[in-house]
Amino acid sequence: MSLIEAVSLLAGANPGVTLLLLALASLVEYVFPPFPGDTVTVAGAVLVVTSGLSLPGMLVATLIGSLAGAAIDFHVGVLLARTADGKVPSTRFASRLARSALVRQALDGAERSSRAFARWGEVAIALNRFLPGIRAFLFVAAGMGNMRFARVMFFAAISALLWNALLVSAGVALGANLDRIESVFRTFGLVAWIVLGVAGALLLVRWAIRRRRAGR
Fold first, then answer.
1. pLDDT band with cut points at 50, 70 and 90 for residue 97
2. From CA 186, how far away is CA 179, in angstroms rounded?
3. For residues 53 and 42, is the Cβ–Cβ distance under 8 A?
4. How far apart are alpha carbons 167 and 23 in whole angstroms?
């Protein structure tokens, strides 16, 4: 979905439906990361500037949607952690799956990673709205890492408010120039992915070096 299509969709609805769509888009983005929730949110920010959409309404709708989606991801992480620990009764199929060496190894690795994530996860949660594509997995990791739900939601709210403030500022600065706004956020997304890729590569190198030293 392009920004122009998103703006047209939202502009064609009454304000109440527009706010509902903004909340749903923010929620779905956390549950189904490929969904272009950021594009819909940017469209909402554009309408605040160009069509008089309620700024408080836009902020509240996207905040509620973001927190609802984040809460779902968090509790999925909690459920995965309990499943890995054998605390959740499972079906026959789930039991067989859990006995699989590959699945067990994946769950053990995810659990270790989530515990490490819990040490610095609050920073990642506070930045989650600025991290395209992976924000849902951050909340799953937070749930698996036994982070405090209230603190996770607090930092998630701060992140959502900062992100929406950036979007509205961009809308004010660029006005109705949708092509320019879309280009700016496409560039931002590309830079964010490059930074994430470099950070991931550095962590992988660090892990490989530590493993080699441990094997000596």
1. very low
2. 10
3. no
4. 15
**Per-residue confidence band for 204, with pLDDT thresholds at 50, 70 and 90:** low
In a domain, 201, yes or no: no
Local confidence band at 105 (pLDDT 50, 70, 90 cut-offs): low
Domain membership flag for residue 194: no
The band of 85, judged by pLDDT with boundaries at 50, 70 and 90, is low
Instruction: Find out whether 60 and 90 touch, Cβ atoms under 8 Å.
Output: no
As given in the structure block, the two tokens for residue 115 are 């515990």
Please report whether residue 153 resides in a domain.
Answer: yes
Output phi, psi for 215, to 5 deg: -80, -10
Number of domains in the chain: 1
Calpha distance 74→77 (Å, rounded): 5
Place of tokens 């749903």: 24
- pLDDT value of position 64: 93
Boundaries of domain holding 114: 3-178
